[in-house]
Amino acid sequence: MSGGIEIPVRVTQVTPVAHRIKRFRFERLDGGPMPYFSGGAHIIVSMNDNGHVRRNAYSLMSPPYDCSAYEISVLHVEDSRGGSSFMHEKVREGDEMRVSHPVNLFQPDWRGRKHLLIAGGIGITPFIAMMEQFSREGAHFELHYAVRTRDRGAYCEDLVARYGPHRVKIYCDAEDNRIPVARLLDSQPLGTHLYVCGPAGMIDGVLKAGLEAGWPEQNLHSERFLSSQPGKPFSIELTRSGKTIHVGHHESMLEAIEAAGIDVPFLCRGGACGQCETMVTVCDGKLLHNDVYLSDEEKASGRKVMLCVSRFEGNALHLDL
Amino acid sequence: MAIAFKQETFRDDFSYRNSPENIRRFPFPFDRDEYMYSVNMEPHVKGQKGTVFESLIDVDEHYIAEMHDRALVLRDDPLRYQALPHMMTAQWDTLELLMEEQAAGYPEHFTLIRNGDRWRWINRPLGIDDTFTFGDTATLPYEPLEYITRQAQGDFCIVDQRDGNLWMDAGMVTTQADWSLDFDIGMNFMEWHGPVPLAHQAGVFDRALKFLLNLQQGKPTRRFNWTMTINPRLDTSPENYPKWGADRATVTPENVGEKVHLRVELQSLWRLPRSNAILFVIRCYLMNMNELVTVPKWARRFPRVLRTLPPELIDYKGLTRYRQTTIDWLSKFDDGAPTSPGPFPD
Q: Would the CB atoms of A111 and B89 count as touching at under 8 Å?
């Protein structure tokens, strides 16, 4: 598989942690150690749903220096295309699954004099591993974590208990308590790096506020958990392999192409890493670019598309595959 | 099988030589009779016994002598080792990788015993037996990167990944083909490759950078680079140019076999786990022309490669003064017969 080496694992624990959120613990089938990783890294979990393979990216939240197991937390998304529903409804303790080696597209800037972490909802997960690493390495950090309601907020009390209220602050929408972004941005020591992970609106708002407050772009980091969005079905022609592929309502182009037995490189499956960038040879219609990898000019040119998250509407789409 | 380590020098009397067995395993980099730049990367996986791919971190008969030469270079110029402060986690990652790979590849020479964070490292060729706490620099005599690269053949750079680029933020560089860590430290990928001719225009570095930014843990990659060096000198640094630059004017038809060396770099790149940095290993192999022509296929191929080099590359690699003399000497060994595909001896 082009996404890297997969590790066969057993699900050794499934723990409900909050409303619609479960934690899964994976240990290697061969009993060996998991690779160490860096805070912010994710893995791709392969799910075999009756022969149909789904692959979703999840941030690792276990301590990066603990190689006994990997842990992820999964939010059961309301209009799930199947991945989070499968994890919540089908996966049981004792099941065998496969996970990829870790990939980090949300690496802390190790030069940071201070790390300011801003999380919304399930966006907390990469920060849990990051804080373990910061804390072990003696780095200065602060977490500001917004949740909708107390029962939807995963790990709130654990994190406050572990790192103290001076380093972990919880904000609850239902109690009309919001992260004071502007004030935070204004009061950081020079050399602070900011990291934001959460809903798209939150990420956009924080990054915009950061730039407006005069922060260097290089000090503002974000991770969006983009996933392929459902949409109208369409067909694509693969010019090199001579195949016609049908992309279903709930399917991504990448998944449909993989299902046809064609190996395409990928790493994040979330429109960020650039691995599945593909040349468009004919486009009679409209490409719906949902990635954050291609530049606006590249998107407008209609010459390239990211298979993992983007879609198409129109008469004909031919790809150089 | 235990390696018979040689006592030899890379300076003054230049007593460095390859044994016949070591010539057979030399990583001859040309798989055809001509040469041009490309993004020639392939997975760094173990290869056959009797090749330099036998282990992923190669140790050979020159190990002790190379480590001695490194110590001499560092004594005169401590700035050949540098690490910026934010690279400490990556330093520990590198120490782990080099200890694990050397111990796995050469258990008769190296042993690593891990007991939680308490590690014991035994390096028999150099007579080292140290116990230390992983993650605690105070328990080692040097910083972790300097400690382990005083015990590993090749140059080592650790590049940090940020802002969609790679940054040369730590390294141990004493066996280099005319570049300087002290000059390049803190530069990004495009900056440190600035002087390379032709490749920028061909888009080689854009593609290579894109590839490396997505380098995955557990999937190291490798490529070859090569140049030529007069006398078996490991330390051909810009800092020491006055010591070796003039050697290039000393090549005569009589001494080509002895003096002219093919210098091959086996470069491997590894994603490091805890830091997400990339370790760039540049392992240098030297072989003189007398040794090279003992393999008939290489004797035929190498003069053909030298003839097809573009002028920019001849200048960049510093071959201008002695390339023709070398081709003339080598041509005696080229009967014009076709060569088999691939780089290995027949």
A: no
Cα torsion B284, B287, B293, B296 to 10°: value is -30
| Domain locations in chain A as residue ranges | 7-99, 114-223, 234-319
The pLDDT of residue A316 is above 60: yes
pTM: 0.91
Q: What is the architecture of the domain spanning A7-99?
A: Beta Barrel (2.40)
**Domain locations in chain B?**
20-331
Distance CA B164, CA A82 (A): 32
CATH for A234-319 is 3.10.20.30
The class (CATH top level) of A114-223 is alpha beta
Residue with structure tokens 């001579």? A242
> How many Cβ pairs within 8 Å bridge chains A and B?
56
* Predicted pLDDT at B161: 96
Predicted confidence at residue A2, as pLDDT, reads: 54
Chain B residues whose CB is inside 8 A of the A35 CB are: 217-218, 273
How far does chain A reach from its first CA to its final CA, in angstroms? 16
* B343 in contact with A, Cβ within 8 Å: no
What number is the average pLDDT over the span B27-50? 85
ipTM score assigned to the predicted complex: 0.87
CA-CA distance, A191 to A113, in Å (whole number)? 5
Active site residues of B: 223
Q: Which pLDDT does position B304 carry in this prediction?
A: 96
Nearest to B217 among A101, A136, A273 (CB): A101
pLDDT band at A1 (very low <50, low <70, confident <90, very high): very low
Please return the burial class of A292, using the count of CB atoms within 10 Å of its CB with bins 0-12, 13-18 and 19+. Answer: middle
Tell me whether B89 touches chain A (CB under 8 Å): yes
CB B306 within 8 A of CB B323: yes
